[in-house]
Amino acid sequence: MEITMRDQVEEALRTVYDPEIPVNIFDLGLVYQIEVKDEGKVLVVMTLTAPGCPVAGSIMEEVNQKVSAIPGVTDADVRLTFDPPWTKDMMSEEAKLELGFL
Protein backbone atom coordinates (compact mmCIF):
# COMPACT_ATOMS: atom_id res chain seq x y z
CA MET A 1 0.00 0.00 0.00
CA GLU A 2 1.36 3.37 -1.01
CA ILE A 3 1.95 5.90 1.73
CA THR A 4 0.53 9.22 0.60
CA MET A 5 1.79 12.66 1.53
CA ARG A 6 -1.38 13.09 3.60
CA ASP A 7 -0.47 9.92 5.55
CA GLN A 8 2.97 11.39 6.18
CA VAL A 9 1.45 14.67 7.36
CA GLU A 10 -0.86 12.81 9.77
CA GLU A 11 2.09 10.80 11.05
CA ALA A 12 4.11 14.00 11.61
CA LEU A 13 1.19 15.63 13.45
CA ARG A 14 1.00 12.62 15.76
CA THR A 15 4.46 13.61 17.05
CA VAL A 16 3.33 17.08 18.19
CA TYR A 17 2.10 17.36 21.78
CA ASP A 18 0.56 20.08 23.89
CA PRO A 19 3.05 20.13 26.79
CA GLU A 20 0.20 20.03 29.32
CA ILE A 21 -1.57 16.99 27.77
CA PRO A 22 0.05 13.56 27.18
CA VAL A 23 -1.80 13.05 23.86
CA ASN A 24 -0.75 14.27 20.42
CA ILE A 25 -2.64 17.10 18.69
CA PHE A 26 -4.02 14.82 15.96
CA ASP A 27 -5.68 12.40 18.38
CA LEU A 28 -6.86 15.32 20.52
CA GLY A 29 -8.90 16.43 17.51
CA LEU A 30 -7.09 19.75 17.20
CA VAL A 31 -6.43 19.26 13.47
CA TYR A 32 -9.53 20.30 11.51
CA GLN A 33 -8.21 20.09 7.96
CA ILE A 34 -5.25 18.72 6.02
CA GLU A 35 -5.11 19.65 2.36
CA VAL A 36 -2.30 18.50 0.09
CA LYS A 37 -2.17 20.72 -2.98
CA ASP A 38 -0.17 20.63 -6.19
CA GLU A 39 3.62 20.91 -6.08
CA GLY A 40 3.86 19.77 -2.46
CA LYS A 41 1.95 22.59 -0.83
CA VAL A 42 0.26 21.52 2.40
CA LEU A 43 -2.42 23.39 4.32
CA VAL A 44 -3.09 22.46 7.94
CA VAL A 45 -6.00 24.15 9.71
CA MET A 46 -5.94 23.52 13.44
CA THR A 47 -7.15 24.83 16.74
CA LEU A 48 -6.05 24.75 20.36
CA THR A 49 -7.78 23.43 23.47
CA ALA A 50 -8.26 27.03 24.64
CA PRO A 51 -7.96 30.42 22.87
CA GLY A 52 -5.52 31.70 25.51
CA CYS A 53 -3.19 28.70 25.22
CA PRO A 54 0.24 29.95 26.39
CA VAL A 55 2.12 27.56 24.06
CA ALA A 56 0.12 28.40 20.91
CA GLY A 57 3.10 29.89 19.09
CA SER A 58 5.43 27.01 19.85
CA ILE A 59 2.86 24.35 18.86
CA MET A 60 2.16 26.13 15.56
CA GLU A 61 5.89 26.46 14.88
CA GLU A 62 6.47 22.77 15.66
CA VAL A 63 3.65 21.76 13.28
CA ASN A 64 5.17 23.97 10.58
CA GLN A 65 8.66 22.52 11.08
CA LYS A 66 7.54 18.89 11.11
CA VAL A 67 5.29 19.22 8.05
CA SER A 68 7.99 21.19 6.19
CA ALA A 69 10.50 18.40 6.90
CA ILE A 70 8.46 15.80 4.99
CA PRO A 71 10.16 14.93 1.68
CA GLY A 72 8.25 16.54 -1.19
CA VAL A 73 6.63 19.28 0.89
CA THR A 74 7.52 22.63 -0.66
CA ASP A 75 5.32 24.85 1.52
CA ALA A 76 3.59 24.29 4.87
CA ASP A 77 0.76 26.71 5.57
CA VAL A 78 -0.40 26.27 9.18
CA ARG A 79 -3.49 28.25 10.10
CA LEU A 80 -5.16 28.66 13.47
CA THR A 81 -8.93 28.80 13.88
CA PHE A 82 -11.34 28.71 16.77
CA ASP A 83 -14.39 27.99 14.60
CA PRO A 84 -15.80 25.63 15.63
CA PRO A 85 -14.50 25.75 19.20
CA TRP A 86 -12.71 22.57 20.30
CA THR A 87 -14.53 20.20 22.63
CA LYS A 88 -13.57 16.89 24.24
CA ASP A 89 -15.97 15.15 21.82
CA MET A 90 -13.45 15.79 19.01
CA MET A 91 -10.84 13.48 20.56
CA SER A 92 -10.18 10.00 19.22
CA GLU A 93 -11.33 7.06 21.32
CA GLU A 94 -7.66 6.38 22.15
CA ALA A 95 -7.17 9.92 23.42
CA LYS A 96 -10.32 9.75 25.55
CA LEU A 97 -9.15 6.46 27.02
CA GLU A 98 -5.63 7.84 27.69
CA LEU A 99 -7.06 10.88 29.49
CA GLY A 100 -9.67 8.91 31.43
CA PHE A 101 -12.76 10.24 29.63
CA LEU A 102 -14.10 6.72 28.86
Automatic annotation (TrEMBL):
Gene3D superfamilies recorded: Fe-S cluster assembly (FSCA)
Domain of life: Bacteria
Domain MIP18 family-like per the UniProt entry, residue ranges: 6-78
NCBIfam families registered for this protein in UniProt: SUF_assoc (TIGR02945)
Descriptive protein name: SUF system Fe-S cluster assembly protein
Record organism: Chitinophaga pollutisoli
